[in-house]
Amino acid sequence: METPLTKNIDPVRGPLDVSGYEKAGGYRALRKALRMPPRDVQKMVTDSNLRGRGGAGFPTGLKWSFVPMGKAARRPKYLLINADEMEPGTFKDRFLLEGDPHSLVESAIISSYAIEADVAYVFVRRSYSAAARLLEQAISEAYGKSYLGKNVLGSDYSLDMYVHVSAGRYMCGEENGLINALEGRRPMPRIKPPFPQTCGLWGQPTVVNNVETIANVAHIVMNGPEWFKSLSVSGEGGTKLYGVSGRVKKPGLWELPLGTSLGEIIDNYAGGMAEGYAFRAAQPGGASTDFVLEKDLGAKMDFTSLQKVGSRLGTGTVVVLDDRSCPVGMVRNLEKFFARESCGWCTPCREGLNWVAEILEAIEAGRGEPGDIGILEEQTRLLGPGRTFCALAPGAMEPLQSALTCFREDFEAHIDGHGCPWRR
Amino acid sequence: MLDERERRDIEKEIGKYAMKQAAAPEALKIVQKYRGWVTDEALGDVARFLDMTEGELDSVATSYNLIFRKPVGRHIVLMCDSVSCWLMGHEQIYEHVRERLGIAFGQTTPDGRFTLLPIACAGACDKAPVMMIDETFYVQLDPSKIDGILEKYE
Ligand SMILES: Cc1cc2nc3c(=O)[nH]c(=O)nc-3n(C[C@H](O)[C@H](O)[C@H](O)COP(=O)(O)O)c2cc1C
Ligand code: SF4
Ligand code: FES
């Protein structure tokens, strides 16, 4: 089983420096890419079927294809690498950033070249200060070797790369929130269109991609799109960093073929449920994905298969709910997070999420009323897709709407019994 | 007044961007690093340095969880209260810390030693429950580990 993204990672040894990374075959893909026209690099990524690993799964090649190219394009153009990773339950980008910073830097240079970007920023959340330091180090080594800066490796192509360390806010991870944050504004989204590819950072053509998405690019260029497609179980292309947290025997993170089943990941890699705990449900891809139940553990963890069972791949990091934790309490925890991180621009999100969180709090505390489930259901519609400026609110509704179906009797037991059965 | 060091650090950050204002979050963190928190006076100085109004800069400052516009303790305890940590016993950890330090989220101990704040998923969910003190991560916490950790901080 090939593991291109993590092959150099050894948490005990620490990350490779530039010469170690070169010895492991690093920066060869960059040399290869520089001999190709940028559009051909784009085409390889399109042909590989690579889809975004940041949550939404947008096809990467297609995203890049909207960037104006050639002499007529407005300059500068920007590539922004999203390392904000604040989605609860998600800890995958950190592993790449801390484990193999040069691999991200190389892939970022190639991706920048593919869209003819002049500057790339890696947007890192405040709490990942170790990752930020390692990246700064890798970038400075890359400048020293002429992988960055004016005339990369003697070519006509020039690129600057910087690390931006944020100050903590979930909305900075949202595509346009990230652009506003980089400009030194409040991290709030922007109305689309225009899309960032034509009008992004400081009004210039801009692409925002997730760390894991970008990290695939050097391997695609080196080994070709067909190789990349063959890595996955389901033809969607590539490997995926899958994580599991919650009451399993061995919580952790593994690079596996995209399309490995949810059950296999939990049983074979996470070691199954911890002693004394039984499986109740799981969120397959972080806090803003719908719960799936035991009957769907056979579902492949890829974009289309999870949709068929009413959920999403999201970030691919699984959160497992066990039988000794209260499902209503878990949903209350999730909604409190979303309410706290809402930027407040859209009324349904600003008011609705707080209301949802308060109702859930009341139900947990034994103050729930018979009409509450109906109100929560109504909110899942009012905050659903298409009613807000960004995906935070619809994302927040995914665990709620599925919980209201999956754990209906638990909600009712709280309301009828005036309290949480798990706290007695 | 921004001192020499602060100005130099902020200038360096400005160099990364096409517009000065982009350095705002880092500039606030720089001031905070040297002074602990961002006073109204410091906010005004940074705003002038970046050609922003105070209102603009304060709107940026207050949108971030880790820019402090009020005095904080010598050490910041950031406790993850997101979902994986919750499942793995965050509430017991929080109860224990609250009892030990006599403060709830958002508060500072009377001796100015600790400020206790919640943090959104710290990205270590496989090692939940977790907390950070200043820059250091503490993972796989249980109440019995807490006292020993807190003792390390003056
Ligand atoms: C509230 C919110 C937070 C987000 N946070 C992140 C994040 O931390 N990292 C990330 O890569 N994408 C995040 N996204 C998704 C981004 O908007 C965007 O889709 C992604 O960075 C695009 O990269 P990709 O196409 O490579 O996946 C977030 C979206 C929303 C609505
Ligand atoms: S959905 Fe919520 S977080 Fe997103 S823009 Fe609207 S108010 Fe802000
Ligand atoms: S939920 Fe606590 S570290 Fe992720």
Describe the structure.
The complex is a heterodimer of chains A (424) and B (154). Chain A is of the alpha/beta class and 424 residues long. Chain A has 18 helices and 9 strands. In chain A, strand 5 and strand 6 form a beta hairpin. Chain A is globular and about 75 Å long. The model of chain A has no long low-confidence stretch (mean pLDDT 97). In chain B, helix 1 runs antiparallel to helix 2 and helix 3 (40-49) packs across helix 4 (54-61). In chain B, strand 3 (131-133) and strand 4 (136-138) form a beta hairpin. Chain B is elongated and about 50 Å long. The structure holds flavin mononucleotide, iron/sulfur cluster and FE2/S2 (inorganic) cluster. Iron/sulfur cluster binds at residues 171, 189, 342-346, 349-350, 388-390, 392-393 of chain A. FE2/S2 (inorganic) cluster (FES) is lined by residues 80, 82-85, 121-125, 128, 130 of chain B.
Give the structural class of chain A: alpha/beta
Low-confidence stretches of chain B: none
How many strand elements of chain A?
A: 9
What fraction, in percent, of the residue positions of chain A are helical? Answer: 40-55%
Helix count from the secondary structure assignment of chain A: 18
- The spatial strand order of the largest sheet of chain B comes to 2-1-3-4
Largest interface: A-B, 56 and 42 residues
Would you list the SSEs of chain A in sequence order as H and E?
Answer: HHHHEHHEHEHEHHHEEHEEHEHHHHH
Strand content of chain A: 5-15%
Shape of chain B: elongated
Taken as a percent bin, the fraction of beta residues of chain B is 5-15%
- Summing up helix and strand content along with how strands pair, one would put the structural category of chain B as alpha+beta
The global form of chain A is globular
Overall pLDDT of chain A, averaged? Answer: 97
Please state the oligomeric state of the protein chains shown.
Answer: heterodimer
Question: What is the gyration radius of chain A calculated from CA atoms?
Answer: 22 Å
Summarize the main sheet of chain A.
Answer: 5 strands, mixed
Q: What is the distance, rounded to the nearest whole angstrom, between the alpha carbons of the first and last residues of chain A?
A: 48 Å
